[in-house]
Amino acid sequence: MTITKKQLQESVDFLEKKGFLNPEIGIILGTGLGKLVNEIEDPITAHYNHIPFFPLATVEFHTGKLIYGTIEGKKVVVMEGRFHLYEGYDFMDITYPIRVMHQLGIKNLFVSNAAGAINLNYKKGDIMLIEDHINLQGGSPLAFKNVAEFGDRFVDMLEPYDLAMRKKIEAIAIKNNISIQKGVYASVVGPQLETKAEYRMLKIIGADAVGMSTVPEVIVANHLKLPIVAVSVLTDECDPDNLQPVNIQEIIEVAGNTEPKMILLFKELIKQL
């Protein structure tokens, strides 16, 4: 699959007609982290299946809506439900919404995800500010023929996560007594979880957390020169020597319990931008 400027324009025209005008901040909500939408004032909703050329969310706990409105006095556009390789989407599908939000006018992108803690000093329920990532998804959302129409083909990834916003998040966390970790996020294909041997490998290559999302969106945001801040809510501990069977409901529950802290960090950061 490839994308065209005409497709993007059709998606943007549809959303602008609905009232999605001049958003400043785009937000992607990860698994179990959907309650930020309750903070949106005067929301306007567009279901993914109504937006031209938008993929559809297939994961049962991702609802599949784009919501526009105001948080802390700023216009935001929020993705409630994101797309993953493990759903059968390709990198173009997964990152199409980032290009649409950029065309709508966003100046910053906030990303959240639920992830497993590889660094055993980190515990479930912790929030990890992503400082860097390792792409283990076996491809790139920039590997298509007409990519140069949208930006430089060879994108620098020296500092994929915006330093200034990271410092702001750290200061907000200290001020509000929220303990946050910092680290490297490894993105894998999924949907199966990792074997004990794979967890050992992830630790050796320098990952602090592992998940199945985020990296494609971050690569495209860098392509569009869009500053990003991203946090992982650590929902399980990936200790290969004491591995327990996975419990998806528990992962959702842990994400939900930690979510209020993440919402506070995001809201305070929105206030400061």
UniProtKB/TrEMBL annotation:
One of its GO terms (cellular component) is cytoplasm. It holds the Pfam family PNP_UDP_1. GO terms for molecular function: purine-nucleoside phosphorylase activity. InterPro entries: Nucleoside_phosphorylase_d (IPR000845), Nucleoside_phosphorylase_sf (IPR035994), Pur_Nuc_Pase_Ino/Guo-sp (IPR011270), Purine_phosphorylase (IPR011268). Pathway: Purine metabolism; purine nucleoside salvage. The keyword Transferase applies. It is an enzyme of class 2 (transferase). Residues 24-271 form the Nucleoside phosphorylase domain. It comes from the Bacteria. The keyword Transferase applies. Its EC number is 2.4.2.1. Keywords: Glycosyltransferase, Transferase. The purine nucleoside phosphorylases catalyze the phosphorolytic breakdown of the N-glycosidic bond in the beta-(deoxy)ribonucleoside molecules, with the formation of the corresponding free purine bases and pentose-1-phosphate. Belongs to the PNP/MTAP phosphorylase family. This is Purine nucleoside phosphorylase. It comes from Maribacter vaceletii.
